[in-house]
Each structure stands twice: as C-alpha cells, then as structure tokens.
C-alpha cells in the first residue's frame, strides 16, 4: 500500500506531480468540484514548524502517515497495487518509518502557516520568489477532519507555492509606468508612493493601485484616464507617465508589449514604419521611447547603407548587396540639389551643407529633414572651415561643430546643440592650422576628429589628430601611431567604430591602414594591413588617397575607397566594385533618431527651430493627442547617458500578482475562490498529532 | 531530455548524478522533466531560483505546457556550453521557423516566445523574436493584420494621414 511504499515509493515521489487524477470518486474531488490544474502535494506539519528541506530527506524522522484512503490517486507513494483505496478508508494506516512526509512537503516549496485556531483563514508566510500563498479555506479542514482529529490550537506550517486565487479579471487594469529619468529599482516605489500620496485621492478616483515596482501598475477598476503624465511631480523625477498597458496580438493570443517590442525592433525601419499603421496599439508601441531605444540598439549592426554623393545628387546603396541600384535621397528641396556636400553623419542622420542654403539634417530612414538656423558667422570664400556632426550620449544631444578660419586668420569654433537648439562659441585659443578648405570630422568615441596642422615640439610642421569632446566641449590631441617616415599623406576616418588612419606613401602607390582599437589609447594603434596598387603606366601622379570604408558583414573584408573612384576589396582580390560617384560614408540606419526627426518635422506651419520634442501619447480610445513637451521634460536621460540594454518587465506580472494577491486577500469586495482540497493527511498516530497534509488543486498559475 | 516516463529514481530535484545536480521541472499540465542544473540555468529565472536556493524541490514552470517545455529543454541541450556543432544545430533549429506562416507554427512560436520570456532565456528569446521578425519583415500592412489578427481601429482618414507621414515605406 501506498503508506508502506517505503523507500521505493518515496523515491518516486516526484511522479505524484504528474496528473494522475483518476476517476475514482474521492471526498476531495467532491469537495472541490472545480477544475484543477494539477495536483500538488502540500504538507501540513504541526510538529515541525521548520519544514524539512527537500534536499535532505530524513528517514530518521519519526513521522508516520495517516492516510485518508479515500483518494487513492493522490497517494504519491503508490506503486498502484491492486486493491488500493479499498478497505483503507480508515483514517489511520500503519506508520511507515520512511514515509516521505518530508519529501512530500518538499514538493512544494513555500511555507504556509495554518492556524488551526482560526480555521476560516490561515495566513501565509512567504518565501520568495514564488507567490504569496495566503489562505487555506475552511474546506480543507472540513475535508480532512473526517479522516483525522485535527490538533486544535497548534500552529503549523503548510508548504505550498501558492493557492489558487481567482480574481474577476473584468476589473483588473494593468498600466505601465515610465519614470524619467530612470531610477534605480528601489527608488521606484518611493517615487510612486509620493505620487499616490499627492494625487491619490484626486487623480486616481480613490482607487488604491498596486505597484509592482518597475513598470507594472494595477488597479481594480479603471482609472479615470487612459494615460496621464505627472510632470514635475517631484524634484528629481520630472516626468512620470501612467499609460494603459497595451498588447499586440499574435494569432489569437496576446503578446505582451515587451515581446512585441523585441520582435518589432528587429525589423528594418521601413517595415516598422509600415506597421505603425496597423492599429493604435502598434502605433503607440512603436512611438514609445522604450521602443525607439531598443530599436536603435538592435539595428546598429544591420541596415547599413553607403551614402554616395556626386553630381547626380546623394544616393543610398544598400551595403549588404552593393550591386543593387542606388536610391536617390530626397533632399530638403530642389534647390539643395546643387553644391550640397555631406558634412557628417551619425546614427542615420546626415548633415548636409549647402553654401547658399546653410546646414540641414536629413534622416535617411524617414527622409525627413530639419534646416538649422545659421549659427556661424559669415565667412568669405577664402576662409577654411571644418565641420563635424556627432552625438553626445551624456546629454542625449546631437551636436554640430563648425570651425572657421577666416581670411583674417581668426579661428572661430561654434557648437550647435540640437537638443535644445542652442549654440555657443568656444573661446579657447585654437593653435592649429586648417589645411584644406573644407574638412569633415570623423565621429568616433564620443568625439569629433580632424586632421590639423601645427608646430610640434621640435618646431617642425606636423599633422595632428585633433579631437573635440562633445560632452565636455573641449579640444585635445589624439596620439598618432608611431610612424618614423614622414613622407606620406594621412587621413582618418571611422572603420567599424574605431578610428583608422590611412597612411598613403607618396609616389609609391602603397598605403598602410592603422586602427586605434581603443579610442584615445596610443598603445592600441595597430596596423590592420598594408597594400600597394600597381602603378598605373600612364601616370606618374601622386597616388590617390585610399581609405577603408567598412568591414563586410562577416568582418573578413574591408571595402576601400580611392579618390580615383574605384572601389576594391583587397583582402580577397575580388574584382573591384565601381561606384559611379565618390563614396562618402557608411551609415547604420537605426530608428531612434528617425522619430526625433519625425517629431521635428511637425507642425508644418511652424518655422524651425522647434523648441523641445513632441511626444505622442495615447489618450482615450478615440483619438491621438499630441502633446508638445517643453524642452527637457522628457528624454532627460540619466547622467551616464548609457543606452540601457535589457529587458523591461520580465517579472512584472509575477510581482504584480504577488502584490495583487496580497491586496485581494485583504479586500472584502473580492471573492476569492479556493478549491484546494486536502487529499491526504499524515501524522503521528500515537500522539494523535497531525503531521502533514497533502492538498490538491494547488495551482501554480499567475494571472 | 527526460520526460515523465523516464524521470524515475528521484524523489526531488536534488538528486545528484556524479557531480551534476538534476532539477525537476513541472510544466503547467503536469509533465515532469528532469534537467541537469548546468543546462537549466540557461534560464535566468531558474538560475535565480538555484542561486536563491529555491530549486531544491520540483520547480513549477507555470504558463508553459509540457510540449513547449520539451522544446525548451531541447533548445537548452543544443545550446549547452561545449555542445558540439553548435552552429549547425542552431541552423537546424532555426529552420523550424521557415514556414512560420502556418497557423500551428505560429502557435508554436508563440508558446516558445512566452516560455522564453517567462523563463528568461535570452538566446531562445532572441531566436524566436528574430524568426518572427524575419517572417513579418516583408509583409504589407494588411498581411500583418492578418498575421497578428489585428483589426485596425483607425478610421480611413487617420490611416491615410499615417501612411502619408512615411509614404516611402509603402512603396516597393
């Protein structure tokens, strides 16, 4: 019989977890009458308040089993002998010394105190990380009381993960919280606590929301708003937005937003833009800052395009299949067609300069543009000017830098900040020479880099790599690789996120490519490769500047660009790829700035620059309302400026259900259905004490 | 990996086999699986439980059916550190998603996605989301609606306005 299953039975204890519920009527199944997910052991141990760990079965433990034979299927230790369940209805079975009370108890992990003095409700003690199991219904005792004399007045412990608690879901509302700037998890509750204290009675309709700690926010009954922001709620957290949680469905099933984001952020920009039109939900998901950030992280390594500029305009070539046709970029207007050059690129934004029309930013993905006001002083055609365009992650700002060396040999440095559309002049002295009439900076390592001329320590004229730190707005010099021979031309650029230096030896048609693996660290310079072209027979000219453009996707080839408009991939000696125009740069096309741009371009009737960002919130069920946020209220990132990688609220449902369960149990208005039933009880027969209970219908499902 | 049928000779999850601990996982519908701890800890959720010393008994994996859990465990086995021909296996696995348009496949992927999400298995999550993304990449708005079973709640005007905002995305 099961009780005597002894060691072998005990060893199979885990099989009792399998859905072995049989058709045999049992008192418990009569009591429950409700569908059960499956059966779980649940042990009440009155004698041993500290529950034996599953990992340490103690055969020496002198517990004996009281079997309630009525439910044979529930006996976990059964080997299915014939006749089981028959004639064993008496409540006491022979004690079996190795009866696996402890093992049974261990099947369920979490403690549950049964207070027999208050048979109606038993409070739970809780162990993480499972849900709080908090109550045992009177039925449990009722069911078991026939089989044993429950020891009155002795506190005990039931181990269970949790008991089924059903909430009527019609009233349960799930909201998402976003707090900007982001705060560490422990601060969330403090912040929300403040909000609730301040606005609880007025804004929340008197409801008491359950806050799960990060994103999840739950109320019984709908809040009087679909979304609401609490700007300036506290001194440190300027913006808190509460937004009704939305889903995207997959098939017939609901896909949580964070998963939808994971999927959508793997799509190219074009698809994403198309899917904005699916529904309000998808639109609001795609327009959310969370998504934008995720998409940017996901797409930095894909979606690369070559931007090709020339007399026929500016074109895009898909870098993954370079032989495909180039696509013309839509310039801000017809008049931009002539005399427009690219002065920088970053995150899929192109900075264009037209000597007549000024500087414009063009989003390659959305094809939207922004024309900047003239923030630089006028200069004549004899002046030299260097431009640079980059992103400062610390302040989440794009910056455009223009260095102008006018013919009066005054050098003026102006930094335009695209975040708040302000500009300022850098007054520090600029002791370098601009060598060419129009230089374009390379954005690497948070700094813009140019080659400038100057006088070195030996009072000899030399080239330097000048870098401008976009965060600090200061200039410094980047060490060059140690090259003794000075008879060469150098140029720098961005190769796979590192600064490269291409060193073209004069008249030799040979060059070296150096890469600075760690930006700013002199020792990290390493020679990537050297290469020499066959000297063309018909020319004795200086060899054209050769520079690498990008690694191929597999990283084993480098695309090269020469000023003579021939592209080669030298490492493999593939036939060169010819581009009709000179190649300017390679750009990833992440989505992030796409949206900022799309925000900029509205409204049409306002002339730029636009102050602040426009944020679309999903308000009400019937319309979208655009709210123009004053600058700095949103997207005000933490100081680190790190784009945070990770997942959003993996545990939120879980945490929330914990919280809600707790609240549900203390709320008189919520009907709680327990259908857990005691199947078996164990105890010390001689002392008449209850040793353990096995309970079924313990459901391990969150909601 | 082992299913309920083969999961014998262990009363609880702490059975050791050599030096490898076995964890017992129970799916939503009651199927019991035994998995090596080293494998199961690819799930961040389970790893957390192991680290918190909460995995000593059966771990209920709610929200995941036995069928799905079997697939997840298959995934774990393939992605065990040091597993041979990892890349090939991965491709093989990924080929399962080739015909994701099929309704049953879609449900499978959905189940896997939810399981990967619940158990927090980054590799699997990445694979599933990429697979879905790959499947929907080229779809038109209408096809997407059909795929996701979404009904547009825009009226025509609003949708036209949205389309116009990014007209190029709707061109070939």
UniProtKB/TrEMBL annotation, chain A:
Determine the domain of life of the protein's source: Eukaryota
Mind telling me which residue stretches traverse the membrane in this protein? Answer: none
Record field: compositional bias (Low complexity): 25-35
Q: Where is the signal peptide?
A: none
Q: What InterPro entries does the database record attribute to this sequence?
A: Argonaute_N, F-box-assoc_dom_typ1, F-box-assoc_interact_dom, F-box-like_dom_sf, F-box_dom, FAD/NAD-bd_sf, Kelch-typ_b-propeller, SCF_F-box_component
Domain F-box, by residue range, is 255-295
Which CDD domains does the entry link to? Answer: F-box_AtFBW1-like
The name this protein carries in UniProt is F-box domain-containing protein
Origin organism of this chain? Dipteronia sinensis
UniProtKB/TrEMBL annotation, chain B:
GO BP terms: jasmonic acid mediated signaling pathway; protein ubiquitination; ubiquitin-dependent protein catabolic process
User: Which keywords annotate this record?
Assistant: Ubl conjugation pathway
Looking up PANTHER family in the UniProt record yields: SKP1
Its annotated pathway reads: Protein modification; protein ubiquitination
Q: Where is the SKP1 component POZ domain?
A: 22-80
Assembly, per entry? Part of a SCF (SKP1-cullin-F-box) protein ligase complex.
In UniProt terms, what function does this protein have? Involved in ubiquitination and subsequent proteasomal degradation of target proteins. Together with CUL1, RBX1 and a F-box protein, it forms a SCF E3 ubiquitin ligase complex. The functional specificity of this complex depends on the type of F-box protein. In the SCF complex, it serves as an adapter that links the F-box protein to CUL1.
Identification of the protein by name: SKP1-like protein
Q: Which Pfam families match?
A: Skp1, Skp1_POZ
Every SKP1 component dimerisation domain range: 123-169
The entry's family comment says: Belongs to the SKP1 family.
Source organism, top-level taxon: Eukaryota
């Amino acid at each position: 019989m099961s009780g005597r299953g002894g060691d072998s039975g005990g060893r199979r204890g885990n099989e009792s977890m399998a859905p072995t519920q049989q058709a045999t009527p049992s008192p418990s199944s009569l009591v429950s009458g409700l569908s059960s997910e499956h059966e779980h052991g649940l042990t009440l141990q009155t004698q041993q308040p500290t529950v034996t760990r599953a990992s340490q079965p103690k055969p020496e433990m002198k517990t004996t089993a009281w079997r309630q034979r009525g439910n044979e299927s529930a006996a976990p230790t059964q080997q299915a002998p014939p006749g089981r369940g028959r004639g064993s209805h008496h409540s006491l079975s022979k004690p079996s010394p190795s009866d696996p009370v402890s093992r049974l108890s261990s099947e369920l992990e979490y403690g549950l105190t049964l207070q027999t003095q208050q048979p109606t409700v038993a409070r739970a003690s809780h162990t993480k990380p499972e849900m709080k199991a908090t109550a045992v219904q009177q039925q449990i005792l009722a069911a078991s009381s026939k089989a044993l004399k429950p020891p009155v007045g002795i506190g005990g412990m039931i181990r269970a993960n949790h008991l089924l608690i059903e909430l009527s879901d019609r009233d349960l509302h799930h909201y998402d919280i976003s707090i900007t700037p982001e705060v560490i998890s422990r601060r969330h509750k403090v912040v929300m606590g403040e909000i609730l204290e301040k606005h609880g009675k007025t804004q929340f309709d008197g409801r008491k929301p359950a806050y799960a700690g990060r994103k999840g926010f739950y109320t019984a009954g709908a809040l009087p708003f679909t979304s609401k922001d609490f700007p300036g709620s506290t001194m440190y957290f300027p913006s808190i937005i509460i937004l009704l949680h939305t889903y995207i469905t997959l098939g017939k099933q609901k896909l949580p937003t964070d998963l939808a984001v994971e999927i959508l952020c793997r799509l190219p920009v074009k698809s994403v833009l198309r899917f904005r039109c699916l529904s309000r939900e998808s639109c609001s998901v795609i327009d959310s800052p969370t998504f934008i950030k995720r998409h940017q992280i996901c797409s930095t390594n894909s979606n690369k395009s070559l931007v090709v500029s020339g007399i026929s305009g500016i074109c895009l070539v898909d870098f993954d299949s370079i032989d495909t046709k180039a696509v013309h970029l839509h310039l801000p207007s017809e008049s931009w067609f002539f005399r427009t050059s690219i002065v920088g690129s970053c995150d899929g934004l192109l900075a264009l300069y037209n000597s007549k029309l000024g500087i414009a930013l063009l989003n390659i993905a959305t094809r939207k543009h922004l024309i900047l006001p003239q923030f630089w002083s006028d200069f004549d055609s004899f002046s030299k000017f260097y431009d640079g365009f980059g992103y400062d992650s610390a302040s989440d700002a794009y910056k455009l830098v223009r260095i102008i060396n006018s013919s009066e040999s005054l050098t003026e440095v102006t930094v335009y900040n695209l975040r708040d559309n302000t500009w300022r002049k850098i007054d520090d002295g600029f002791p370098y020479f601009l060598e060419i009439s129009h230089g374009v900076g390379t954005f690497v390592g948070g700094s813009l880099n140019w080659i400038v001329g100057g006088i070195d320590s030996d009072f000899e004229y030399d080239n330097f790599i000048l870098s401008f730190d976009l965060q600090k707005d200061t200039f410094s010099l980047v060490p060059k690789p140690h090259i003794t021979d000075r008879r060469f031309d150098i140029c720098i650029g961005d190769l796979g996120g590192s600064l490269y230096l291409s060193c073209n030896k004069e008249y030799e048609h040979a060059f070296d490519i150096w890469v600075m693996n760690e930006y700013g660290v002199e020792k990290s310079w390493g020679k990537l490769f050297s290469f020499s072209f066959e000297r063309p027979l018909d020319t004795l000219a200086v060899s054209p500047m050769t520079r690498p453009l990008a690694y191929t996707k597999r990283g084993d080839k480098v695309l090269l660009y020469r000023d003579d408009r021939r592209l080669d991939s030298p490492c493999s000696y593939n036939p060169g790829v010819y581009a009709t125009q000179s190649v300017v740069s390679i750009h990833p096309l992440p989505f992030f700035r796409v949206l900022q741009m799309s925000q900029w371009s509205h409204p049409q009737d306002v002339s730029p620059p636009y102050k602040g960002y426009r944020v679309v919130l999903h308000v009400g069920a019937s319309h979208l309302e655009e709210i123009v946020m004053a600058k700095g209220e949103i997207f005000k990132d933490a100081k680190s400026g790190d784009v945070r990688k990770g997942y959003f609220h993996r545990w939120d449902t879980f945490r929330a259900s914990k919280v809600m369960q707790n609240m549900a149990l203390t709320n008189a208005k919520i009907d709680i259905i327990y259908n857990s039933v005691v199947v078996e009880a164990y105890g010390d027969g001689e002392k008449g004490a209850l040793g353990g209970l096995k309970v079924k219908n313990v459901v391990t499902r969150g909601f | 990996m082992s299913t309920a049928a083969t999961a014998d000779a262990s009363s609880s999850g702490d059975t050791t086999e050599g030096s490898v601990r076995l964890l017992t996982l129970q799916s939503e519908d009651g199927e019991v699986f035994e998995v090596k701890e080293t494998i199961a800890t690819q799930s961040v959720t389970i790893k957390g439980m192991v680290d918190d010393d909460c995995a000593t008994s059966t771990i209920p994996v709610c929200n995941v059916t036995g069928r799905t859990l079997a697939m997840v465990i298959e995934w774990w086995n393939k992605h065990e550190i040091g597993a041979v021909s990892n890349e090939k296996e991965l491709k093989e696995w990924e080929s399962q998603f080739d015909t994701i348009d099929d309704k049953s496949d879609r449900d499978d992927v959905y189940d896997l996605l939810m399981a990967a999400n619940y158990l927090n298995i980054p590799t699997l999550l990445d694979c599933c989301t990429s697979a879905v993304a790959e499947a929907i990449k080229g779809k038109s708005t209408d096809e997407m609606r059909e795929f996701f079973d979404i009904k547009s709640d825009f009226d025509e005007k609003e949708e036209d306005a949205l389309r116009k905002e990014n007209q190029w995305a709707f061109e070939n």
